[in-house]
TrEMBL record:
Lineage: Eukaryota, Fungi, Dikarya, Ascomycota, Pezizomycotina
Catalyzed chemical reaction(s): ATP + H2O = ADP + phosphate + H(+)
Record-stated family: Belongs to the DEAD box helicase family. DDX56/DBP9 subfamily.
Protein's name according to its UniProt entry: RNA helicase
Region (Disordered): 1-34, 345-385, 573-612
Entry-linked PANTHER family: ATP-DEPENDENT RNA HELICASE RHLE-RELATED, DEAD-BOX HELICASE 56
């Protein structure tokens, strides 16, 4: 009795049954740490897992896989990067393989619903990797491509065992009779708290009516919110709750968080110094508020030869997936992502309340917002299945920069969750515009930055509950002023016309690379020539080669370290090998000529006479 009282006394108001279920196996698993083979998975899946170099199952995998194999409904909350995808994919695959040994009849047994197309592609690739040794026995389909109904119907005509889709695409296929859920056995909701926040409430209700009785449901999420309670009441029957938030304190200690309070113009100046002088090294993810902002920052960086790529909802899904893959392979070090799905601004007294307000907004968009709001929603319907701050597996991210602060503390948590994963260290840097400085730099000011200080206060309170803190990262403004004229010169070159042309140029390149339009261009070569001609003429950004290099006279006497007013743990401002810029080995970078010598530029200069 004493042991029971001690255990139930620690959490304040948690129910007794789920708590005993989550704590007792947890201590046993921590002591034994079973391997994937001991979890009861199919041997072919274990072999595929070994090929992926997964040494031991993570906590969420040790806890969720046995419960899922027993046929229980599972509602799991775990941190991003904790291995949630394998935690639900492996038991579903193992159960389907076990069933096929006795009943080889083809039917769709598993449906995995995700809020974004990028996440759907990530889950589909995970299924392909885990079924490497049983590909003939498992057939999976992904319903996120922009294809006609006839093509989608033919894709589902082979009766896939598992379907990965967004709720809108899944319901469209069910409603058109292309997808049958009459014998469905497993339903998975990944990032379940976002499903309703993204406006899929009607689709989820329609799907629930099409499900047979006895479907096993697995829900994975990074937060526990009101949306999860709604989905739990619709799809689950007495689920086992796994709240694993307390098991990742050691990894959280490797995340260092900073904020910079400055004006809008100083935000661009500090960003230029950070990336040009390599204050932060390694793959970096920069979050901005909207699409125009992402292209403005990209063109601004191009003035200084800082390579970056843009990720936003306007790009085709194949392009977005390709950008993420190239970033994970190390081709790009900087991704500028527009976080257009950030929760609306509001009070966040409870966890997930900002997302709750977004759900209410999506539900009442036809009743309260008037006639103009539905038009906006239809116009930007392609944005409904785009999301970058949640779910996507960005690998080895060294730093997350909130160039524009999110509008809620929960969005901030999800953004910084992209770094400091898998035991690696990471940095989160946020720019905060004080209220008295908002609107002072009209050329680049946006409306959302007016609430930066309020959001920062909520973020600091939320992080304090997790035993984290945000430290100020100050710059020596007197030393930064030497670079200000370069920053202003680069900003003046990035005009609204240049931003609009950059957006159209991205889409024009996608048209040229499109396999779908390849045959059309073969039959209409003039259209292809016009498209290429427009691309050649569409470079409206003023090029300034002198901005590519930072002359030594701009740097302080003490080197780039003098730009910082305090040491906060960033990468030192020295080249590898321990040498400063002034003590480089070999000859200086500039050329030297000797008058009258072999390299005399006057002797090598040739003049061509004009033909008569």
């Amino acid at each position: 009795m004493k042991r029971k009282l001690d255990k139930t006394g620690e959490p304040s108001a948690a129910p007794a049954e789920p708590e005993t279920k989550t704590t007792q196996p947890e201590k046993q698993a921590a002591a034994t740490e079973p391997s994937f083979a001991e979890l009861g998975l199919d041997p072919r899946l274990v072999q595929a897992v070994a090929k992926q170099s997964f040494e031991k199952p993570t906590l969420v995998q040790r806890r969720a896989i046995p419960l899922a194999l027993q046929g229980q409904d599972v509602l799991c909350k775990a941190k991003t990067g904790s291995g949630k995808t394998a935690a639900y994919v492996l038991p579903v695959l193992s159960s389907i393989l076990k069933r096929k040994t006795t009943d080889p009849t083809p039917f769709t047994a598993g449906l995995i619903l995700v809020p974004t197309r990028e996440l759907a592609d990530q889950v589909f690739k995970a299924i392909e990797q885990f079924t490497a040794f049983c590909a003939k026995d498992i057939h999976a389909a992904k319903l996120t491509e922009n294809v006609s109904d006839a093509v989608q119907r033919s894709l589902l005509a082979n009766v896939p065992d598992i379907v990965v889709s967004t709720p809108a695409r899944a319901w469209h296929s069910v409603n058109s009779s292309a997808l049958s859920l009459g014998k469905l056995q497993y339903l998975v909701l990944d990032e379940a708290d976002l499903v309703l926040s993204y406006g899929y409430d009607e689709d989820m209700e329609n799907i629930s009516r099409s499900l047979p009785k006895g479907v096993q449901t697995i829900m994975m999420s990074a937060t526990l919110s009101a949306e999860l309670d709604t989905l739990k009441g619709i799809f689950c029957r007495n689920p086992t709750l796994l709240d694993l938030k307390e098991e990742f304190g050691a990894e959280d200690e490797k995340l260092t968080q900073f904020y910079v309070k400055c004006g809008e113009d100083d935000k661009w100046l500090v960003s230029y110094l950070i990336f040009k002088l390599q204050l932060i090294k390694g793959p970096c993810l920069i979050f901005v508020a909207d699409i125009d902002r992402s292209y403005r920052l990209k063109l601004f960086f191009e003035q200084f030869s800082i390579r970056s790529c843009v990720l936003n909802s306007e790009l085709p899904i194949n392009t977005r997936i390709k950008i993420i893959e190239e970033f994970n392979r190390g081709i790009y070090d900087i991704i500028i992502a527009s976080d257009e799905k950030s929760e609306v601004f509001g009070d966040e007294n409870a966890e997930g309340e900002g997302e709750k307000k977004e759900t209410k907004k999506s539900k009442s968009k036809g009743e309260e917002d008037g006639a103009e709001q539905p038009r906006k929603k239809r116009k930007n319907k392609k944005d409904e299945e785009y999301g970058v701050s949640r779910g996507i597996d960005f690998k080895n991210v060294a730093a997350v920069v909130n160039f524009d602060m999110p509008t809620s503390a929960s969005s901030y948590t999800h953004r910084i969750g992209r770094t400091a994963r898998a035991g690696r260290a990471g940095i989160a840097l946020s720019f905060v515009i004080p209220k008295e400085l908002h609107g002072k730099h009209r050329a680049t000011t946006i409306k959302s930055t007016e609430k930066d200080e309020t959001v920062l206060a909520k973020v600091m309170r939320q992080q304090a509950k997790l035993n984290r803190k945000l430290e100020p990262y100050n710059f020596n403004k007197s030393q930064m002023d030497a670079f200000r004229y370069r920053m202003n010169d680069a900003l003046r070159a990035v005009t609204k016309v240049a931003i609009r042309e950059a957006r159209t140029r991205e889409l024009r390149q996608e048209l040229l690379r499109s396999e779908t339009l390849k045959r059309y261009f073969e039959e209409n070569p003039t259209e292809l020539s016009h498209l290429r001609h427009d691309g050649e003429l569409g470079r409206t950004t003023r090029q300034q080669p002198h901005l590519k290099h930072v002359p030594d006279y701009l740097l302080p006497k003490d080197g780039t370290k003098a730009l910082e007013t305090q040491k906060v743990g960033f990468v030192p401002f020295k080249k590898e090998g321990g040498k400063d810029r002034k003590h480089r080995k070999g000859k200086p970078k500039g050329r030297s000529f000797k008058v009258g010598g072999r390299k005399d530029p006057l002797k090598t200069f040739k003049v061509r006479r004009k033909a008569k």
